[in-house]
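Deliverable D2.4 — example input (structure tokens):
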């Protein structure tokens, strides 16, 4: 059960839940026939004993671990990461689950696809979700569009100029209520197709399914 942060005159919120995959030797790296993303590795660069301070070198790709895809990830000439305002990545979210009706957008700025066990939606329902106008979708688990190729969702979002945060810790996301608050904070990279991202979410007291 989530712990309450404290009483007062402000709306009571619950503690933040980290939805980010740990970045260690167990981190899965995307691969398909004939292709694999860059491997993730941490190397010692210098040590306190020799240099007076410790530094590690990171090897990783822009789509390593929990990350955000800019449209340029799937569309040649698409928007790169810096085109997205940070204000689009912080605020209220509303949840869309496979097999359920679309939610009302309300005050939400993020559409959260909570599908820890995977799922499938019709093309018509996907198009209706896209028409809600969210500039950022956040996906826990995976979602396919019925009758379309496996990366259709990614390519359709990119063509529409939508940024996608994905590869979250799906089990951590499973109990989240349908509405709450979310922060998705990528590295401030310029000109890239994406970046690793720290994702945190919390419910507000009284909000549930």
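Example output (designed residues):
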């Amino acid at each position: 059960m989530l712990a309450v942060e404290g009483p007062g005159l402000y709306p009571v919120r619950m503690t933040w839940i980290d939805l980010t995959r740990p970045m260690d030797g167990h981190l899965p790296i995307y691969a398909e026939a004939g292709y694999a993303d860059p491997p993730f590795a941490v190397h010692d660069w210098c040590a306190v004993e020799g240099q007076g301070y410790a530094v590690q070198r990171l090897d990783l790709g822009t789509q390593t671990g929990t990350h955000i895809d800019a449209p340029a990830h799937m569309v040649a000439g698409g928007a790169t990461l810096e085109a997205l305002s940070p204000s689009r990545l912080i605020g209220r979210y509303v949840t869309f689950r496979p097999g359920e009706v679309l939610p009302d957008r309300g005050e939400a700025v993020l559409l959260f696809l909570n599908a820890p066990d995977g799922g499938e939606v019709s093309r018509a329902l996907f198009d209706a979700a896209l028409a809600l106008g969210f500039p950022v979708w956040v996906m826990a688990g995976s979602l396919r569009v019925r009758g379309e190729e496996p990366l259709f969702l990614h390519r359709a979002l990119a063509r529409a100029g939508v940024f996608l945060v994905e590869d979250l810790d799906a089990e951590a996301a499973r109990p989240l209520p349908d509405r709450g608050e979310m922060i998705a904070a990528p590295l401030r990279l310029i000109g890239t197709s994406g970046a690793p991202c720290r994702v945190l979410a919390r419910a507000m007291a009284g909000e549930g399914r």
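Confidence is low (pLDDT under 50) at residues 1-10.
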